[in-house]
Amino acid sequence: MDLKWQEIEDIPVVKVPKELDITISDRFKSCVVEELLKKKKSKIVLDFSSCEYIDSSGLGVVISIYKRSMMEGGTTILAGLNEDVKRVLSITGLNRVLKVKDTVEEAVEEAKS
Question: Is 0.70 surpassed by the pTM of this model?
């Protein structure tokens, strides 16, 4: 899997795939850890603007990335969630734990502060 990401104002912005489910979640997590967290990029924005579906394994990956970035002194911020993904976060209560912003730009500003 090729991880699609770019740096905006020194903050890595990772494009979340269209479906973050059991078929891809482990590879996505491995790529984020290998390409970003192991290179001390601990402030990460996950861009969900293309993501239409997330299942429990995808949620587990997001939580794992969040915890790992926090352990490294950083944070993980979610951006661009559609209504379905927002509803999943709300049902699970993760919207109260994870940082969520409407746009990538807002998430980058939050990560910089």
Answer: yes
